[in-house]
């Protein structure tokens, strides 16, 4: 079982929408730094190695992400990278979990692109309603075993 801590979408180094299912001690400042660093790592990987990395595995947590391109109305005719990500507890077989999660992250980006195409993506407050879509795709995996069982019996 995978326990998802957070899922969201990054654009221009900022988190534009996310759902956090379990606190893991990250402050707002930490989230902004994490968003910028993750975007920089992905951009560096693309530029230096001509391909994107799909995950980062730490001692306690793992990050899985996908990317796509999107147009924002504040910049004409330039597609920019948009990233969907998941932060989850470390699991033994990350490659197997990644195989299942990456298509869902891609689906999340497609839903976002469909809903917000031809919009100014610099106005972050406009995207908070998209949390419902994130929760529809990943909210169940953000629940602990106790939370899942409670919903089943009561």
Account of the protein in words:
The chain has a single domain (4-153), classed as Beta-Lactamase. 40% of the residues lie in helices and 26% in strands. It contains four helices and five strands. The chain has a five-stranded antiparallel sheet. Strand 3 (55-57) and strand 4 (61-71) form a beta hairpin. The longest helix is centred in the last third of the chain and has 23 residues, at 94-116.
Structure annotation, total helices: 4
> Would you count the extended β strands for me?
5
CATH fold name: Beta-Lactamase
> What is the C-alpha radius of gyration, as a whole number of Å?
16 Å
Give the rounded overall mean pLDDT.
84
Kindly summarize this structure in a few lines.
The protein has 154 residues and is an alpha+beta fold.
Protein traits:
5 strands, 5-stranded antiparallel beta sheet, globular, 154 residues, alpha+beta, 40% helix, Beta-Lactamase
Topology:
Blueprint: E1 4-11, E2 14-20, H1 28-49, E3 55-57, E4 61-71, E5 79-89, H2 94-116, H3 131-138, H4 145-153
Antiparallel strand pairs: 1-2, 1-5, 3-4, 4-5
């Amino acid at each position: 079982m995978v326990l998802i801590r957070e899922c969201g979408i990054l654009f221009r180094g900022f988190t534009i929408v996310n759902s956090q299912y379990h606190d893991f001690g990250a402050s707002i400042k930490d989230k902004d730094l994490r968003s910028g660093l993750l975007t920089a790592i992905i951009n560096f990987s693309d530029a230096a190695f001509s391909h994107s990395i799909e995950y980062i595995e730490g001692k306690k947590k793992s990050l899985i992400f996908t990317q796509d391109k999107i147009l924002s109305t504040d910049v004409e005719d330039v597609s920019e990278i948009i990233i969907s990500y998941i932060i989850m507890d470390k699991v033994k077989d990350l490659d197997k979990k990644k195989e299942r999660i990456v298509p869902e992250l891609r689906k999340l980006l497609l839903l976002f692109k469909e809903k917000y195409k031809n919009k100014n993506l610099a106005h972050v407050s406009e995207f908070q309603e998209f949390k419902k879509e994130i929760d529809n795709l990943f909210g169940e995996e953000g629940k602990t075993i106790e939370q899942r069982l409670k919903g089943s019996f009561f």
